[in-house]
Amino acid sequence: MLYYGCMEILVFIIYIIVFLYSVIFHEIAHGLVANKFGDDTARISGRISLNPLVHIDIFGSVLFPLLLYLSSGMAFGYAKPVPVNPYRLKNGKVSYRLVALAGVVTNLLLAIIAALVLNLALKIFGLNLDNLGVIFFAYVLNLNLILAIFNILPLPGFDGFNFLTTFDWFTKFISRTPLANPLFMLQYGLLVSLLLLMVFMPIINNIFVFVFNLFARIFGL
Q: Of 216, 78, 82, nearest to 153 (Cα)?
């Protein structure tokens, strides 16, 4: 019993560490790409850092994912968004698109690396599923795929939405809705996104299943 209790604690700690740093790497990627294209706002704000304290949002990084984990066994959350000034970016909209996609691409790369490591660990070295190293990389794979899929969604506050705002047809469409009102978004943006997530969750779940199965087939997991 003591062994299993210690294992549960270690697994939970691994989960939290992987989750936090998956989100942090996501945000750092935004800042690094923005800095490369001329906007050093994130860098001079001290946000291109591995120090979790500068990225943690009390609700989004701690309370919300903890509640989800305790209630469903799965956590999703967010860190403080890295500040980006699109007007300082070279090449304007093209650069902003790359900034918006940087976090998702980073999560996908981390997931691919984790999948490759898991393939070696399970098939070449024959490690068991309860090995802490295997558990660590399994969480890296799963959480980064979850973050990549969620963030590519075209919902307010997500990278997919920010990416689409660089296209005139999308901004014209949004201009006819309350989503174009900064005050409305400041007050209700998070609530709108959560409600839309609930409405479209069946579709999102199908996307999850497809992507996870695709990774399993590609990497032989």
A: 78
Q: Which residues contact 152 (CB under 8 A, 6 or more apart)?
A: 104, 158, 159, 160
Cα–Cα distance measured from residue 66 to residue 84, given in angstroms and rounded to the nearest whole number: 28
Asked if 8 is an active-site residue, the reply is no
Task: Determine the structural domain holding residue 162 and report its residue range.
Answer: 2-219
Tell which residue, 67, 49, 65, has the closest CA to residue 57.
Answer: 65
d(CA 13, CA 73): 14
Catalytic residue among 25, 27, 99, 110: 27
Residue 53: how many other CB atoms lie within 10 Å: 6
Does 3 score more than 80 pLDDT? no
The whole-model pTM stands at: 0.86
Domains: count for the chain: 1
